[in-house]
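Final report, closing paragraph on structural work. Over the funding period we assembled a curated collection of sequence-structure pairs, and we close with a single example.
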Amino acid sequence: MYTSEDRSSRSVIPITTVPAEGDVEMVSLYQAQQKIYPRSVQGVFARWRWLMVAITQLVFYGLPWLEWGQRQAVLFDLGARRFYIFGLVLYPQDFIYLTALLVISALSLFLFTAVAGRLWCGFACPQTVYSEIFLWIERQFEGDRSARLRLDAARLSFDKVWRKSGKQMSWIVLSLWTGFSFVGYFTPIRELTASVLSLGFGPWEFFWILFYSFATYGNAGFMREQVCKYMCPYARFQSAMFDKDTLIVTYDEARGEPRGARSKKTNPQAAGLGACLDCTLCVQVCPTGIDIRKGLQYECIGCGACVDVCDKVMDKVGYDRGLIKFSTQNAMQKGWSWAQTVRRIFRPRVLVYTFVLWAIIIGVGVSLWSRDPFKVDIERDRATMARIVPGGKIENVYRLQIMNAAEQTLSFQLQVDGLSGLSLATEPLVEVGATESRWISVRLQVPYDAAPAGSHPIHFRIDSRRPNGELAGQLSEKSVFLIPR
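Its predicted structure, as stored:
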C-alpha cells in the first residue's frame, strides 16, 4: 500500500509492500546520493586531459589581457554594440558570423561525437576542466581518495577545520577570479581591475562577477558529476550520434570474465579466471562513479581515466594492456586490429561531416577576409517624405548610418544615381573615426518635371578612402525617391 508524506517532518516516506509470507519490506522512493571520491590517476589520457586544462585556461584567463593596437584584443562591448576580435570589428549587422560560428560548433560536436564519442565532455568541457582543477586543489589540502574518506569520517578537529577551510577559500578565490575574467570580456579588463581595486565598479559588473563565481563554485566544487548526469542535455541525446563504429570506452568482457582476485603468480587459465582482478580501481577513478564493466552508460564522459588505471594494473600483474580501452562495438564483436578500427572511422558519415564543416569554415574565412571595412544603413526621414524647395526642385531627406569597422579614420564620398538630374544638396564628403559609427542627414533633389509622380528606385554609392588616399572599399545601397502628385 502507499502511504502519504509526513508534513511535519518533511521526510521521504517509503512504499510498504507485504509479501505473501507476511514479512514487511521497506522500499525507498528515492535513492540516496553518495558522494564520489575520485582517485587520482596518471597515464596517457590523464596527461591529455591536463594539457587541455592548461590550454583552455591559458586562453580564457590570458585573452582579456592581450592588446591589439590601443585596445583590448578581444572585447564584446555591448554598450557600444561593437565586438572586437583581434583585427576584426563586428557590429550587430554581422549577426551572420555568429550564426556561422554556432553552426561550426554544432557540426564540430557532431563530427567529434561520431568519431570518438564524448571527447568534448571528457577533455574540454568547462564542467570537466573546472572539476579537474577543483579536485586538484582538494587533493592538495585533503590528500587522495583514501585520505579524503578518512577525513570526512573523522571527528571535528583543528586539522580537519584548517584543511576544509583552506580548500574552500582556495575554491572561492579561483571562482572569483573566473567570474572577474569572464566579465573582463565585456568590460575592458584593465578598467574593471581599477574599478574593483577602488570599489567603484557598477552594480551590473558586481552582479555578474558574483553570478559566474557562484556558478563556478557550485558546479565544480559541489555538483560536479551531477551536472553531467542530470543537467547536461548532451548526455541524453548523444546516443543519436553514436553508431557501431564510434570509438567509446569499452570493457573486453570476453577477456576479462570471470573476474576475481588472485596473486601475481596465479595462472588465470588454470584458476578459471579472466584478466579482470576485480580491484574496482576503474570505478574509483571514474569522475561520475560508474562501473564501465557493466557496459557503456550515458553517464560515461569518455575521459579515459579507467583506461589509464587498468593499463597500470595489467602492467603490474604482467598481463597485456587493453582490458579497458577505446574501441568500437564492431571492433569488439569482430576482433578487429587497431589499424582496421581506425580505417573504419573514416566512413561516409564522418567524411560528410568533415566536408561540410571545412566548407563552412573556408566560406566564413573568405567572407571575413573580403568584407568591406565599413557598413551603411539608409533610412528615409519619416518626418519629411517629399517637399518642394526654393528653385522649384523636389527634395527627399535620408538618414545614413555609416559604421567604420577599420582601425583608422576613413573618408566617405557619397554619390547618387537613378533619376535624371538627381543631385546631392549636402556635403558629399564625410569622415568617420576608427571603429566609430555616425549618423548623417542627406538631402537629395531633382528638377520638378524630372519624373512622373510615384516611387522611383535610386542608388547610393559610397567610396571609402584611407588617410593616404588609398581606396578602402565601395558599397552600393538601394533606396527610393518619392515624387508627390
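The two ends are 86 Å apart (CA to CA). The longest strand covers residues 471-483. We thank the funder for supporting this effort.
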